[in-house]
Every structure is written in C-alpha cells, then in structure tokens.
Amino acid sequence: METRRRASPVVAASVTVVALVTMALGYLNKARCAGPPFDDAGRSEVFDRIKDSAVCYSDIQFLWLGRGIDLHLFPYVGGAIAPDGSLTGGTVEYPVLSGMLMWLGGLASDTDADFLAWSAVLLAPFGALIAWMLGRLAGRVALIWSASPALVMYAFHNWELPVVATAVGAVAVMATRLPLRVRAVIAAVLLGIGFCLKLYPGAFVLPLAAYVLHGETERDRRDVRGALGVLAAAGITVAAINVPFAVAGYDGWRASFAFQSLRQADITTNSIWYWGVRYLFETPGATPEVSAADEAAFQSAVDLLSPTLVLLSFAGALWVGRRSLATVGSYPWVQTSAVMLTGFLLFHKVHSPQYTLWILPFFVLLRVPWQVVGAYLLTDVAVGVGVFRWFAALAAGQDARSEETLVVLGVWGRTVLLVILLVLFARADVRTPPVRSTRPRMHRLESEEVPV
C-alpha cells in the first residue's frame, strides 16, 4: 500500500515552535483590547475605544456579553431566538461543539480579558497540532501556516483552530498505513466533528467517500460498502453530537442555525454580494421607501443565489474530480475538497476575515504557485486591517474613503484569486517533503505521492 512520505519529527517540531511564537504574538495583539478598568459586566472599558482603530478586535472578547457566557449559562439548552433575530438563554450562533468551547472558556472567567486568555489556552493546542501535522505532511512548507500573518490576526479572533485541526487531521489520517476503510472511517469521524464545530469540513465527506468508492489504484474494485461506511460514520458522528442538544433544548439548538440563515449581506460581510451585486439593486436618487424596497430585493436575491451557487460549485468540484480519475488513477479527494471550500468562500454571503485560516492548510498540502499564495495573504491583510480601520473612521465621522478603497481592493483582489484557485486546486499535485540525497551532487529522488 502506498503511503505519503513524511518529514522528520525535527522539522515538524520546528514548524510547531514557530506556530507557538506566532500565536503568542496573536494573543498579545488581541490583548491590547482587554484589561482594567472593567465595567460592571466585566467588559474592558478600552475595548470599545480602540478595538477597530488599533485592529485588536476579536469575536471572542465581543461575545463575552450577549450570549450568556458572562453568566456561565450552559449553551443552547435554555435558549431561543427572539423575533428580532437576537439570541437568548445561552444560545450562540455556532454549532454545538464551538458553543461548548465558548462555555468552557467562560467558566473560570469574570471579565472579557479572562475569557480571551482562557479561550487562547483552549485554542492554542489546536493551532500547534495543525502545525505539527502539516510539518509532517509537507515539511518546511508548513511555515505558510505557522509563520503566516493570518495566524497572528485570527488565531484568537474566533473559534477556528479546532475546526481546521479536524480537516487537517482527516488528511493526516488518510496518509497513514492503516487499511483504507479504517483510515477513511476515522477521517470521516473527524470531518463529522468538524461539521459540529463550523460546518465546512462536512462537505469534504463527499470527496472522501468518492475516493474510497474508486479505490487507491486503477486496479481496485469499486467499494460501494466502503463509501457508504464513510457517509454513515460522518452522519452518525454528527447525530451523536447534536441529538442530545436538540432533545434537551430544541429551540436553543435550532436557533443557532436560524441566526445564520437570517444574517444579511451587509457592511460586515466582506463579500462580493455587498461590494458588487448590491449596486445592481440600487435606484439612483431613490426615496427612502424605494431604497428600502431595493434593499429587500437585494437581500432576497442573495438568500437565493448564494446557497445555489455554493451548491453548484460543490457539484462542479465533484464532477471535475470524477473526470480526473482517468489521469490520476484515484479520486483526488484533497484537491476536490479544496475546490469545494474555494467555491464556498467565493459565493457565500458572509466572508469573515478569519476564514483565511480555513484555506491556509491547502496552500501547504497542494502545490500552487508561490505568487498566488503571497498575493492571497496580501489581500487578506488588506481586508483584515482595512475593514476595522474603515469601521473606526466611520464611527469617528472622519473621511473614510482611503480605508474603504483598501477594503474594496482587498475584497476584489481576493475574489480574483479565489477564481484562479478554483482552477489551480483542481489541477494541483499533493505536496510531499523533499527527498535529500545521501551522496553529494546526486539528483533528487522523485517524491512518492499517495493517490488522493
């Protein structure tokens, strides 16, 4: 059985140490927004003053209030969603495992600064684990993850590190020497756990099942039972995690999904819908009543077009993966997963800055041009810094045109790169650590590739 060659533990350890240093810088950046004096609710008084202008805002610190975390409410069970769309009774807007992490981070916390610190303690091991796995899978190229500006900006911006760890963990498991069905079921369980953290890894179960169905070589027989086992493992995992919450408090559990479905493509979403499609629905010189009607028509169109295009991009990715069977010899599940994620980032109505952490591992795992990776990271910085500086200028009543221009350039530059990545990921080879020759001046050996 072919397995992917791995880099030495020394290389992986070095990459992990770099990630720990980078995350420490990330925490110090966010902690500038936290600290005494605090108000009666435990909110840092400095937070509202500098969170945007100093670019130290984090969802972690912001959500200390308004989700029952400061009250140590167990999530979902006693919650609901109000008619105005606000969440009550401990419900948060994320799937249940993210809600549990938030609750755990808040248990020993009395202020938002405590909550940020304890959340960082919970999340940092996942960031280090990602670095270790990527280091073993791809060698020093994993520094794209460990030394990335995105890890500084977003490691403790939201609760992304655990879900990224499940996606990378699935790839790492599939690179081991275990029997294919065993590997695939473990990977499917990890992806199911990822779904219960932030949803997106659940999409990767489909290409994983296709990989098992078609086998690792052209000589393998179609394994329908193995593919169904992958789908069942992921489904059972998702059900086992969600059903207890749904039974104990259905309204609170359902509210997290309802909240996301009701979210609009607005000034906070950094998407092509707000920065492009919206203008097609505006009537020049319109009265307030007409403008309100235009806005309602725009939001209705987004609610229809965004999920439709996401699903079409998923279907297209799976079809392209099937077409490549003849040349690759096995279903390219990692490449197809990357294309599916890219389609989601391109067409979803919300593109939060921290989503960059989702795509970073694919820059490590797949061979894409360095110029594209560098350009993507630059556009990410433009959006991640520009949008908060823009918010600060608007709040202060200042001229915000330069900040707005930076955001627009970042959003549309990233959009162009995502379109390019749809093609590059579909055609990419899986990256493996380089082979070092034991003799001087010998040609480098060819890398072993596992069919994925």
Structure write-up:
The chain has a domain at 266-433. It has 452 residues and is mainly alpha-helical. The longest helix is centred in the last third of the chain and has 36 residues, at 288-323. The protein starts with 8 loop residues before the first helix and ends in a 25-residue tail after the last helix. 63% of the residues lie in helices and 1% in strands. It is globular, with a radius of gyration of 23 Å. Strand 1 (80-81) and strand 2 (87-88) form a beta hairpin. It is a multi-pass membrane protein. This is DUF2029 domain-containing protein. The chain crosses the membrane at residues 7-28, 115-138, 159-178, 184-214, 226-247, 304-321, 333-350, 370-394, 406-426.
Offer a few descriptive terms.
single chain; mainly alpha; 2 strands
Largest sheet: 2 strands, antiparallel
Summed up, the helix count is 19
Q: Kindly report the average pLDDT value.
A: 92
How are the strands ordered across the major sheet?
Answer: 1-2
* Portion in helices: 55-70%
Structural class: mainly alpha
Q: Pick out the low-confidence regions.
A: 437-452
Q: Tell me, what's the shape?
A: globular
Give the SSE string: HHHEEHHHHHHHHHHHHHHHH
Radius of gyration, taken over Cα atoms and rounded to an integer in Å: 23 Å
Distance between the termini: 13 Å
Beta content comes to under 5%
> What is the total tally of β strands?
2
